[in-house]
Amino acid sequence: MVTTIFKGCAIVTKPFMFEKPLGMRDTLPVLYETKVSARNKMSDEIKKWGYQFIETPALEYYETIGEASAILDQQLFKLLDSEGHTLVLRPDMTAPIARVAASKLLKQQIPLRLAYSANVYRAQQREGGRPAEFEQIGIECIGNKSISADAEMIALLADVLKAAGLQQFKISIGHIGFLQEFFLSILGTEERASILRKFLYEKNYVGFREHVKSLPLSSIDKKRLIEFTSLRGSEGTLEKALALVENNKGQESLSELKELSVQLQEFGVGKYVSFDLTLVSHMSYYTGTLFEVYAGQVGSPIGNGGRYDNLLEKFGWDASATGFAIRVDRLAEALGEPIQPVAPECILFSPERRLEAIEYATIKRSEGKRVTIQDITVVQNVDAFTRTFSEVHLFVGNGGNGKDE
Amino acid sequence: MNNSFLTIAMPKGRIFEEAAALLRTAGFRLPPEFDDSRKLILEVEEENLRFILAKPMDVVTYVEHGVADIGIAGKDVMMEEDRDVYELLDLKISSCYLAVAGLPGTKISDIAPKVASKYPNVASGYFREQGEQVEIIKLNGSIELAPLIGLAERIVDIVSTGQTLKENGLVEYAKIADVTSRLVANPVSYRIKEARITEIVDRLAEIIE
């Protein structure tokens, strides 16, 4: 920002002419190509599984989408329309898709398989450089209550990431229903359970243990709660969990996960997944299985998803649903290999041979080549200008054919 | 996976010695030059470990961004920075607490209440909780100077023995929170290098309790 002090007294702060709002970014050619390449490979794979892409508007009503989405209120970009309604820039795609599905598409087909690739908006509070607008590619499977739908999500997620070129990644799977039932069976009230959930969400295991120690519970129950935090890892997690639960409800969730694990083996993606029953998402609308995916050197999950059986209710349909979203910017970071834009060829012409140049370019383009045509008389430094092209053709001076330099 | 390469962010200065001693007690073979090295990166090949030495305030930042898998950070810094990392273990070293202090027999100004601190977020959060409206002044060190010279009526700072406060004629008004060093982990590393990190947590937990 620049502060201009005018003679007199007014002080005006105005943005630099090239400044953008906090968290907003331009996508320059290398990143653009990298993202497009990854996006195309992923959307091809998603289509192969029979999902149909749709688009929804960037602006939605605060009262519908803003409140249905699980994004914190202070992270929403809010605007007013000309009639005074509060609008939000969509903070996620799941709520808008639930709206579309409930309003129209579910009347035609159930289960419904939809996909999207869109920018979402979340205002960032910390460190100005973090993106507040980012692209997500994802899917939603609506009206499918079976475990096979959960398995399909995770198998497709793995396939999509492989298609994008990611070699190594890990998907952690949890079950918010199990966690909730387990906490409630020991603690009795939702209020107490929510305190422990918050510690897990904040990733504060120290606080979790200290809080458990301070609770008026039997030492056996305290031990069970503390052992709960070790219900994660590649092997034996579900067996350990089974040993911890007492009531039937928790067992039900666990047998769901067991079944899921079998199906994931059948899909051939077993090696990518592990169970983490301590997983709690910032998305509060999840009701059953939920998962996050991690890769390479990226310090945050590159994607997440899960089952949300109550969201559709907000739009008047009692339908279960499950889905996932991949953050394309973090995926590009995990891929680690920037894709350079293809350098076009250049035809430099002098005005008297313009027609020749246009005809030559047309032929080249019909062969699928990328061709720039440029009047040489306005180029001040030919060497500097032509440096970035793969080939240069000159149509300059009298007669002769197009000559490659 | 059990022996995947791990980067540990260590805080330089006061906490360092205690942290290094703790790791040695837990059976990590750290090189002797570890303690007086001026290097910022130290590799311990036989342990498949790399240590980076960072400013205590920055440890959680390195861990959050994943360039360090785990780290040792003060709870004071974690409260101030609010980073997205796992807080795995209370190491119970470098024990101290965050407190409000000031000159004896003074009260916060009714007209222009001011509080100086190296922890502006903690200070601001605390006074808001108390329903006090104060102006927070961020300082980077020698916080005790602020009330002496009239910059602020109160300071928020860490207190370990109370000696510094005493020497400067200051008294404690309220305790905000206990502070010890914590073992923190990057959320992704905690999943991808889960076996190795769990092993370290278990080894440390055994000698702490």
What does this structure look like?
- The complex is a heterodimer of chains A (405) and B (209).
- In chain A, 38% of the residues lie in helices and 21% in strands.
- Chain A is of the alpha+beta class and 405 residues long.
- Chain A has 2 domains: 29-335, BirA Bifunctional Protein, domain 2, CATH 3.30.930; 345-404, Rossmann fold, CATH 3.40.50.
- The two termini of chain A are 47 Å apart.
- The mean pLDDT of chain A is 88.
- Chain B is α/β, with parallel strands linked by helices.
- Chain B has 2 domains: 6-94 and 180-208, D-Maltodextrin-Binding Protein, domain 2 (3-Layer(aba) Sandwich), CATH 3.40.190.10; 96-177, D-Maltodextrin-Binding Protein, domain 2, CATH 3.40.190.
- Helix content of chain B is 32%, strand content 29%.
- In chain B, the strands form 2 sheets. Chain B has a 6-stranded mixed β-sheet with strand order 2-3-1-4-11-5.
- In chain B, strand 2 and strand 3 (49-54) form a beta hairpin.
- Chain A binds chain B through residues 126, 170, 172, 202-207, 210, 230, 232-234, 274, 276, 292, 294-295, 297-301, and chain B through 1, 64-67, 82, 84-90, 182, 186-188, 191-192, 194-195, 198.
List its salient traits.
heterodimer, A: 405 residues, alpha+beta, Rossmann fold, 2 domains, 9-stranded mixed beta sheet, B: 209 residues, alpha/beta, D-Maltodextrin-Binding Protein, domain 2, 8 helices
Secondary structure layout plus pairing:
The complex is a heterodimer of chains A (405) and B (209).
Chain A (H helix, E strand, L loop, with lengths): L1 E4 L5 E4 L14 H20 L3 E2 L5 E3 H7 L9 E3 L5 E4 L4 H10 L8 E10 L11 E10 L4 H18 L5 E6 H12 L2 H12 L3 H10 L4 H10 L3 E2 L3 H8 L3 H20 L5 E4 L12 E6 L8 E5 L13 E7 H8 L9 E5 L4 H13 L4 E5 L6 H5 L4 E5 L7 E2 L1
Parallel strand pairs in A: 3-7, 9-11, 15-16, 15-17
Antiparallel strand pairs in A: 1-2, 4-6, 5-6, 7-8, 8-14, 9-12, 10-11, 12-13, 13-14, 17-18
Helix pairs in contact in A: 1-4, 1-11, 4-10, 5-6, 5-10
Chain B lengths: L5 E6 L2 H12 L15 E4 L4 E6 L4 H6 L5 E5 H7 L4 E5 L5 E7 L11 E4 L2 H10 L5 E4 L6 H5 L4 E6 L3 H5 L3 E9 L1 E5 L1 H6 L1 H15 L1
Parallel strand pairs in B: 1-3, 1-4, 7-8, 7-9
Antiparallel strand pairs in B: 2-3, 4-11, 5-11, 6-9, 6-10
